[in-house]
């Protein structure tokens, strides 16, 4: 049965551990309950759907209703002769649980996304990615309900227009218009280990199982990233910027004795790790009130004191952007959604 909580601290439903008031938080357990909630004009507006709140920073109180799905189910819907396996998961499923359950069945595809906080629904919106895999590479379809009409719509992979931490649902026109209710992933029963990122190859050796890949990914992540259960954060705070070859040559010239990390992603498009820029700009030890950068991954702003305010975090964000801009003429943009 749906559950409504009025005037509640957003801290309990987000991972940054920063306080703000939500006028209403509404949990639902079925799609019919979701549709009833959408039709209920007495609920405070606007409507915002959250998963685990692991990519969110609420900069002030939220006057509307935050919807959260408690629908937690997934099933294999097709196994094809070529080895492909179609898996349908409800949007409320915790992504890491899905990664674990499928790796245990030796179904390949999601293992490199192990350990990323958040839900299946948000993986579509965010096109989550890690260690050479993006959710969008594997998503063939997403089912959704339009907030205004409560009508069901199916989006194909092509319609979603996945990009780097991007989907159509992040555009001005589509933002907060649809609620993702289920996602279909095309996975594989044939081993497909992707070991060419970080030191995965050395950890798993040859012919690893899917669960060995998952465990290796988690061990790398645990060494590098703060667990939201211990330190508040929303993961990587900034996107990795994309610059031109000419701009990249200028940056390389500043470090003649160093290999500047980069990924060539297109004609005249070079992606630089924002963490490297933050480090080289000398921002790594910056603090602001209760907020600082995580010692082993400066791309992550953490609520180190447990008492950081959104103001602390935004001040720190602006100082970092200014510092990187002045040193490298590159503007960093946040990956974390600000409300
Ligand atoms: C420690 C840490 C490590 C992280 N590492 C990674 C990483 O390696 N790679 C990566 O890509 N991200 C990473 N993240 C970011 C985060 O985990 C992802 O962005 C994740 O997809 C967010 O999921 P969520 O369910 O918490 O979404 P939320 O933060 O609750 O929401 C994110 C956005 O999705 C929307 N949304 C959520 N559910 C739905 C739905 N059902 N329908 C419509 N809209 C919806 C929200 O409105 C919001 O706009 C990390 C975060 C943390 C805290």
Q: What's a quick, concise take on this entry?
A:
This protein is an alpha+beta fold.
Bound molecules: flavin-adenine dinucleotide
User: What series of H and E elements makes up the topology?
Assistant: EEHEEEEEHHEEHEEHEHHEEHEEHEEEHE
Please give the order of strands in the largest beta sheet.
6-7-12-10-11
Please tell me the CATH architecture of the largest domain by its name: 2-Layer Sandwich
Question: Which percent range describes the beta-strand content?
Answer: 25-35%
By DSSP (H or I, 4+ residues per run), the number of helices equals 10
Indicate how many domains the architecture comprises: 3
Class inferred from helices and paired strands: alpha+beta
Largest sheet: 5 strands, antiparallel
The CATH class of the largest domain is identified as Alpha Beta
**Uncertain spans:** none
Radius of gyration, Cα only, in angstroms?
21 Å
If you average the pLDDT, what whole number results?
95
Considering the chains and any ligands shown, give keywords for the structure.
Uridine Diphospho-n-acetylenolpyruvylglucosamine Reductase, domain 2, Uridine Diphospho-n-acetylenolpyruvylglucosamine Reductase, domain 3, 3 domains, five-stranded antiparallel beta sheet, 10 helices, globular, binds flavin-adenine dinucleotide
């Amino acid at each position: 049965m749906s559950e409504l909580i009025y005037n509640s601290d957003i801290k309990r439903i987000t991972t940054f551990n920063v306080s703000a008031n939500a006028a209403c938080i509404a949990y639902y357990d079925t799609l019919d309950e979701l549709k009833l909630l959408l039709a209920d004009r007495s609920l405070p507006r606007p409507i915002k759907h959250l998963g685990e709140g692991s990519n969110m920073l609420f900069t002030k109180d939220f006057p509307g209703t935050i919807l959260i799905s408690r629908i937690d189910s997934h099933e294999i819907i097709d196994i094809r002769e070529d080895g492909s396996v179609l898996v349908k998961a409800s949007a409320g499923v915790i992504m890491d649980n899905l990664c674990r359950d499928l790796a245990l069945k030796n179904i390949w595809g999601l293992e490199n996304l192990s350990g990323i906080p958040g839900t299946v629904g948000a993986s579509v919106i965010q096109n989550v990615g890690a260690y050479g895999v993006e959710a969008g590479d594997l998503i063939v379809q997403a089912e959704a309900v339009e907030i205004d009409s409560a009508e069901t719509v199916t989006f194909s992979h092509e319609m979603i227009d996945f990009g780097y931490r991007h989907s159509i649902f992040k555009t001005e026109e589509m933002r907060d218009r649809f609620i993702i209710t289920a996602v279909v992933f095309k996975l594989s029963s044939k081993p497909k280990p992707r070991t060419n990122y970080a030191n995965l190859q050395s950890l798993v050796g040859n012919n690893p199982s899917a669960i060995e890949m998952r465990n290796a990914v988690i061990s790398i992540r645990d060494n590098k990233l703060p667990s939201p259960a211990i330190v508040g954060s929303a993961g990587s705070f900034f996107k990795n910027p994309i610059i031109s070859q000419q701009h990249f040559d200028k940056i390389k010239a500043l470090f003649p004795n160093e290999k500047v990390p980069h990924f060539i992603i297109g004609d005249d498009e070079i992606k630089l790790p924002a963490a490297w820029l933050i480090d080289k700009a000398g921002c790594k030890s910056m603090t602001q009130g209760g907020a600082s950068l995580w010692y082993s991954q400066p791309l992550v702003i953490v609520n180190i004191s447990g008492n950081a305010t959104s103001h602390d975090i935004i001040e720190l964000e602006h100082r970092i952007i200014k510092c990187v801009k002045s040193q490298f003429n590159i503007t960093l943009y946040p990956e974390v959604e600000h409300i």
